[in-house]
Design goal:
alpha+beta; six-stranded antiparallel sheet; 620 residues; seven-stranded mixed sheet
């Protein structure tokens, strides 16, 4: 019935979908096994993609040839560029999505991808021989052979759902948990742990009084995530902002005795930066209100996602508290919020390729590695799928550097530092974030996507043209000047010093008060040239000029770190031979087995003096 596959992907969530698509588009024979074909690419939590740092990840996935950006653009109902008041390193695209359309578009793309087969079943066991995975066994008792396996089990491994004192098995509401794999992996020597996440109640939008809520519209200047030309919808849906109050908090506190979080029934740690409403009330007792985001679930549904109100309190407590929110007096609830506990495997047990250290050809991606968020899962799936195929072909693994992508930062953080709470990406985690902007993700990563066969020649030509056109615009501004009569009126209106003689356009644009449009208005010749360039190229040229000196400093830092990364370490090196190393450093280095001196320097517990000792030893 089944021939041997190159890659079996277990799980049809965001990580699994990207893994299957990447492996298949690189020419591999792929089988995607999921427990429910109707929930492929389900947005289990909020119906949105992107946000601070997460938006950069989606653009990087797209630049490498993944599908998340394309699917997001095809299903978007509202688009906003966050942090536009800050520098470009902080600009982060975010889209509200039609939940059902998002999943439908993902499934359609996968079904149109040659080499992807599907099977609806639960994987209960890995076939392992001589510390190498050989395939899987399903709950139906079917054995399927493969060269590699990618586990993307999400929240389904021994998942337990909590609502008040009610407790039942499940990986998502209405869906059963996956069993058997954790126990087998532990028997093979893997360390496992428990994590927790939550979701808010879903609301009937017809029951809300929107006059008491603040409307939040999308950007009129709509953009997409994908660097391909996806036709965005003409109209956008509005979101709304509401607030809790002291009465809401008091009503919620009445249910704290039945809270599975406070009673100790939930053992796993939840996401620090996305706490439940009861956790916020408990931790921030001085706050008399908390912000809520009322997010539509799609074009053709009245269902509302109440972002900011995740809870596992009893359903009757949830309902009473909701009624005390202004605008929610007559609220109707579709289903209550709940918390879910699930198994994960500390990611220090992985190589940077996301292959496990204990079992060859076995890869982990997504929440099984302790991350939270669609975007974090999707990028891991993409890299796991790429490296699984390259392992089949005995080709060198693809490792993204911290200096070239947020994806590289995320994977390095996980593998080098590990995580004991759900990991979420922030711009502050990237030391070179000025270089890792959402606007230049295609320039940074499309070349690699092209080499891997995930980016077409036509699309690569578009990137080459963008680079060439940007350089041409910057060169023009460096070599052409504008006279005082043409620009001084604009300079004075913008509150910056007028010029007394002809000045290079480049020099004027470095002033923080001046933007590219000011120069275009003052110089007809420049305006005539700029008409031939698209919006992204013009924006790229402006950023290059304004931040040129900062980019130079960042590049110097990258080069210094690169020298550390060039010092490779034998993964089998016995650190106990170096008695001068601290005991903690020896233990941490033996556990992580860093590939380079740079990676060793980022391990928690390894001090600068330990690195100096390693450097001296390696120099010998």
């Amino acid at each position: 019935m089944f021939s041997k596959y190159d890659v079996i992907v277990v799980g049809g969530g965001h990580a699994g979908c990207e893994a299957a698509a990447a492996a298949a588009n690189m020419g591999g024979r792929v089988l995607l096994i999921t427990m429910n074909m109707q929930t492929i690419a389900q947005m289990s939590c909020n119906p949105a993609m992107g946000g601070v740092a997460k938006g950069q990840i989606v653009r990087e996935i797209d630049a490498l040839g993944g599908y998340s950006g394309i699917v997001t653009d095809k299903s978007t109902v509202q688009f906003r560029m966050l942090n536009r008041s800050k520098g470009p390193a902080m600009w982060s695209p975010r889209a509200q999505n039609d939940r059902m359309l998002f999943a439908a578009e993902w499934r359609a793309l996968l079904e149109q991808t040659p080499n992807v087969d599907f099977w609806q079943d639960m994987v209960s066991e890995l076939l392992v021989k001589d510390n190498r995975v050989r395939g899987v066994r399903t709950a139906m008792g079917i054995e399927i052979q493969s060269k590699t396996v990618v586990l993307t089990n999400g929240t389904f491994l021994n998942g337990v759902i909590h609502i008040g004192q009610k407790r039942f098995g499940g990986g998502r509401t209405g869906e059963k948990a996956a069993t058997g794999l954790t126990e087998q992996l532990v028997s093979l020597g893997f360390e496992s742990g428990r994590m927790k996440t939550g979701t808010p109640p879903r609301i009937d939008g017809r029951s809300l009084d929107y006059s008491k809520l603040e409307e939040q519209t999308g950007d009129p200047d709509r953009r997409g995530f994908s660097f391909t030309d996806i036709l965005l919808p003409e109209k956008q849906l509005s979101c709304y902002i509401g607030y809790t109050n002291t009465k809401v908090h008091a009503l919620l506190q009445e249910g704290f005795d039945d809270s599975p979080m406070f009673s100790g029934r939930i053992k796993g740690l939840g996401p620090r930066y996305c706490p439940s409403i009861e956790d916020k009330i408990n931790r921030f007792a001085d706050k008399d209100r908390h912000q809520l985001f009322i997010e539509p679930e799609g074009w053709n549904t009245v269902e509302i996602y109440l972002n900011g109100f995740s809870t596992s309190l009893p359903e009757d407590v949830q309902y009473k508290a909701l009624q005390a929110i202004p605008g929610f007096e007559h609220v109707k609830m579709f289903r209550p919020g709940y918390a879910i506990e699930y198994d994960y495997f500390p990611p220090v047990q992985l190589n940077l390729s996301l292959e496990t250290k204990l079992v060859a050809n076995l890869f982990f991606a997504g929440q099984i590695n302790g991350t939270t968020g669609y975007e974090e899962a999707a990028c891991q799936g993409l890299l796991a799928g790429i490296n699984a195929i390259r392992k089949c072909r005995e080709e060198e693994e693809v490792i993204l550097k911290r200096s070239e992508s947020y994806i590289g930062v995320l994977i390095d953080d996980l593998v080098t530092k590990g995580t004991e709470e759900p990991y979420r990406m922030f711009t502050s985690r990237a030391e070179h974030r000025l270089l890792l902007r959402q606007d230049n993700a295609d320039i940074r990563l499309s070349g690699l996507g092209y080499e891997l066969g995930l980016i077409s020649e036509e699309r690569m030509d578009k990137v080459r043209n963008k680079i060439r056109d940007t350089e041409s615009l910057v060169s023009y501004m460096k070599s052409h000047s504008v006279d005082p009569a043409s620009i001084n009126g604009i300079l004075e209106a913008k509150g910056t010093t007028p010029i007394k003689q002809s000045t290079r356009l480049f020099t004027l644009l470095t002033r923080p008060q001046i933007d590219l449009n000011d120069l275009l208005h003052s110089d007809p010749a420049f305006r005539g040239i700029a008409i031939g360039y698209d919006r992204e190229t013009l924006e790229q040229a402006e950023i290059q000029v304004k931040y040129e000196s900062y980019f130079s400093k960042e590049e110097e830092m990258v080069q210094r770190m690169k020298r550390m990364e060039e010092h490779e370490i034998n993964p089998d090196f016995d650190y106990t031979q170096l008695g001068a190393l601290s005991k903690e450093a020896q233990e941490k280095l033996l556990r992580v087995k860093p590939r380079t001196l740079g990676q060793a320097s980022r391990i928690s517990g390894v001090s600068p003096s330990d690195i100096s000792i390693l450097l001296v030893h390696m120099s010998r």
